[in-house]
Amino acid sequence: MIILAFTFFISHFSTSPCTFLHRSLLEAAVCSPCFFFLRNKELILAAGVVPLLQEMTSNHDSHPSATALYLNLSCLEDAKPVLGLSQAVPFLTQLLKDETAPQCKLDAIHALYNLSTYHDNIGYLPSAGIISGLQSLLADLVTKCGQKSQ
User: Residue span of the signal peptide, if any (predicted)?
Assistant: First the structure.
């Protein structure tokens, strides 16, 4: 039910600015067990979720939900070229460098991996700063491991 409402909402209101209601619906969809079914992901992608996701990335409070949704959609073969051409790669790469929750970074790295399995997306990764993002992620990991050993 949530997925159908979400799909309807996106298809009819995706041109309006991202509001609290948009974010709430996205968070409900991501947290819903129904979201994990392949057909539901396809419906959400077909309804035009990408522009709404791009709006969500401008709000720091929405980053975890947007990242989780990017991760879930990046599993779809049909979504990989669409997400590759969107702002997904720069956004996900930046999350690797930013101070953000570990789960958000983990979702970002998995989504980037999924997107990299589509050949045409490979060229977007270096230009989005994936190398410095991975270096930052590794530096954080080394720092945290060093703190635990002391």
Answer: 1-15
